[in-house]
Design goal:
By secondary structure, the protein is of the alpha/beta class. It folds into two domains: 175 residues, glycerate kinase, domain 1 (3-Layer(aba) Sandwich); 227 residues, Rossmann fold (3-Layer(aba) Sandwich), CATH 3.40.50.10180. It contains 16 helices and twelve strands. The strands form two sheets. A six-stranded parallel β-sheet has the order 3-2-1-4-5-6, sandwiched between helices. It has a six-stranded mixed β-sheet with strand order 7-8-12-9-10-11, with helices on both faces. Helix 7 packs across helix 9, helix 12 packs across helix 13 and helix 13 packs across helix 16. The mean pLDDT is 96.
Length: 414
């Protein structure tokens, strides 16, 4: 029963962020001139489909999404590209979008449909840095444990299109950004590295991120960041942006499901950031406090949280924020009775694996050890995906066509 409730909560969180429910109220009126729709992200194709079905005027456009996330559109071209490490398809799509911004007038409208994952999908390196060199930087960032804000700071300063550059190229046309937030704090400048949002970060900050994590980057990248010759735009004109779906909205939808099932929901926050295993250890302490002392709520209770934790990959495993969190949670709970948990990415992809996340029960550790699996060794190897695959406890959804970041729930029964 607990597993069914947790899955229902996860599904409610995803449904609350789907474009068909969230995008129509924000669709602008047609302009005197042309309407050009551009977009990037795991949910951008679904957003494009909803947009063209509800738009009253003529339009044209180009959207890039992750492989396997395309949906049919009639007037907006959909291109698939690689994520989380960019490929040539994404680079070509970004170059075409930049060309589409040329020769626009004040009578024209550009609508940017942006969702999480767009940063890798919309990769157009600056002159002097090759795509392979950009990929090397991206791989290093993904393994570093850096939060998304720091990763995007570096990405923006190695790109011709991110950090507001796409909107700057569209001037004097009006630019309307409709974004599904997958970042802590709903900072739209951080969603997909904000191609149509003014950027307050600097080259100096990008260099600091490289130094902070001792990243080995190509010489061309070092030279570009040191030269700091083309700063991202700090102010844009004739632009507006709307967050059409957010992590908090999804957490609240999940909380309603918990309440209906007889659980008192506690939303700890939609913007939790830290190492995944550390968050797991802390959440275990909170769950045990609820179970032992009825604080901050008495069981049955649903402890709900979101945000974007990180994994510093030191072992040979594939990482994955949600499975790493769950492994740490299970180890600290140590088989505590009547505590179940689910963690998954609302886009259906945890790290680089086509798995949303996993589930733990009071028997998780015992079953693993009976199979000859050492849970602590699996955690040290960052092999959460292998661990839960062996147990048959993975959460597999396929592409959800939206992305409001991670969803975590811990059910504590009386």
């Amino acid at each position: 029963m607990q597993i069914d409730i947790m899955k229902a909560m996860f599904n409610a969180a995803v449904k609350a962020a789907l474009p068909e429910a969230t995008l129509p109220p924000f669709i602008p009126k047609p302009p005197k001139g042309r309407t050009i729709v551009i977009g990037a992200g795991k949910g951008s194709a679904a957003m494009a489909q909803v947009f063209e079905k509800n738009y009253a005027g003529a339009l044209e456009g180009l959207v890039v999404t992750r492989y396997g996330h395309a949906v049919p559109c009639e007037r907006i071209e959909i291109i698939e590209a690689a994520h989380p490490v960019p490929d040539e398809a994404g680079s070509q799509a970004a170059a075409r979008m930049l060309e589409m911004m040329e020769c626009l007038t004040a009578d024209d409208l550009v609508v940017a449909l942006i969702s999480g994952g767009g940063s890798a999908l919309l990769s157009l390196p600056v002159d002097g840095v090759s795509m392979e060199e950009k990929r090397a930087v991206n791989r290093a960032l993904l393994k570093s444990g850096a939060p998304i804000s720091e990763m995007n700071c570096v990405r923006k300063h190695l790109s011709k299109i991110k950090g507001g550059r796409l909107a700057a190229a569209a001037f004097p046309a009006r630019v309307v950004t409709l974004a599904i937030s997958d970042v802590p704090g709903d900072d739209l400048a951080a969603v997909a590295s904000g191609p149509t949002i003014a950027d307050m970060t600097t080259f100096a900050e990008a260099r600091s991120v490289i130094a902070k994590y001792a990243l080995e980057v190509p010489d061309s990248v070092t030279r570009h960041l040191q030269a700091a010759s083309d700063e991202t735009p700090k102010q844009l004109f004739n632009t507006e942006a709307h967050c059409i779906a957010s992590p908090q909205q999804s957490l609240e939808a999940a909380a309603r499901v918990a309440s209906a099932a007889g659980y008192t929901p506690i939303i700890l926050g939609d913007a939790i950031e830290a190492e995944s295993r550390d968050v797991g250890f802390v959440m275990a302490g909170i769950a045990l406090q609820v179970q032992r002392f009825g604080q901050p709520a008495k069981p049955p209770c649903a402890i709900i949280s979101g945000g974007e934790t990180s994994v510093t990959v030191r072992g040979n495993g594939a990482g994955g924020r949600n499975v790493e969190f769950l492994m740490a949670l299970a180890l600290k709970l140590n088989g505590a009775e009547k505590i179940h948990a689910l963690a998954g990415d609302t886009d259906g992809i945890d790290g680089a694996r086509e798995v949303a996340g996993a589930i733990i029960t009071p028997t998780t550790l015992a079953r693993a050890r009976k199979m000859g699996i050492d849970p602590w060794a699996s955690l040290a190897n960052n092999d959460g995906h292998g661990f839960f695959e062996s147990l048959g406890d993975q959460l597999i959804t396929g592409p959800t066509l939206t992305n409001v970041n991670d969803f975590r729930v811990i059910l504590v029964d009386a």
